[in-house]
Amino acid sequence: MSALVLTRPEIQISNMAQFICQHCGGFIEAVVSTMRTELPCPSCGKLSVPLRPQVAAPAKPRLSIPPITTTPGLPVSRVAEIAAQIIANVEQVVVGKREQIVLAVAAVLAEGHLLLEDVPGVAKTMLARALAHSAGCSFKRIQCTPDLQPSDVLGESVIDPQTGRTEFFFGPLFSQFVLVDEINRANPRTQAALLEAMGEGAVSVGKVTHALVRPFTVIATQNPIEQEGTFPLPEAQKDRFLIRLSLGYPSLADEKQMCERFQLGHPIETLKAVTTPDKILACQDAVRAVRLDSEVCDYILALVRATRAHPALSLGASPRGSLGLFRTAQALAAIEGNDSVRVEQVQALASAVLSHRLHVRREPEHRELKEQTVMEEIIRVTPAPGAPSGSKN
Prior knowledge:
The protein is 36% helix and 15% strand. By secondary structure, the protein is α/β, with parallel strands linked by helices. The strands form six sheets. It has a five-stranded parallel beta sheet with strand order 6-9-12-5-13. Strands 1-2 form a two-stranded antiparallel sheet.
């Protein structure tokens, strides 16, 4: 039997390619090996050396960076509108204290902290609660006593006995509005625990630093009576507060209105938020954009430097006081709907922002003076920009 021979068909591998005529630009199809041989062009009939078509090299991938876009800030008119809503809302609870409420709102918009010094029962706590509720922010109250420890304020790390893992339990300071009631009754260690939080917006426990939620405002109260067993705030601690306020007793008409309004219940229980924390942050950013002319800045610095040279003062306002008056003036201008700071706004704020940073000398001739009295005198005698030549304010 003859053997069956199986033949495998050749596998034809096409090596044809398209080239370009050097005369007319038409395509010539030819074998790759003939690329440099003259061939007739089917389009123009001329002999041409086929040229490879120029194929664009693939583009290298590039890092695509979107354009930086800045979110337009709130206009001053919108800041004034939000501030007016907060002020009107707080006035439902704190009757007849519009000036103090405006200053408290200015402290919040200037990203500062507030110190309330007054006798008991004049709505210091209600002011703090009403501000927090109106802004739609979280609120915690810390009642200070001599045995209050820093961990009671900041929180502490606790080891879970089942897992062995360390867990941090946040203290009441981790809130957007914090009322530190009767701060001068807390011991110095606990008072000092507030310094980092008020200055840096963060709390360090061990080797870990915890950022506080913004907006963050500390409202501390001090009782000027019954000083036995208290710990007066040191100068460094008082300097952390942007504004010091005193509410005082209400007038007869305001107190009567208060009694009538509170007859069926306290308004704080039904007080609604009129804005949100995000809008408060947007207002704080807008405050920084309020214009402050060079001559107004010079006036602020003149007031501050006058406190350092006054003969009745052993301690003048610090550079933090200059920055505080600068920022609070911007906030008050925005609250009043102005896109630039006026001298009158600086004068209205100077005592509340600077007086608690001063220290009166202990000599007999100065001992009876109050810091606020000295500050008012400095405002009165310091020449203001635009004042007639040779005249004071």
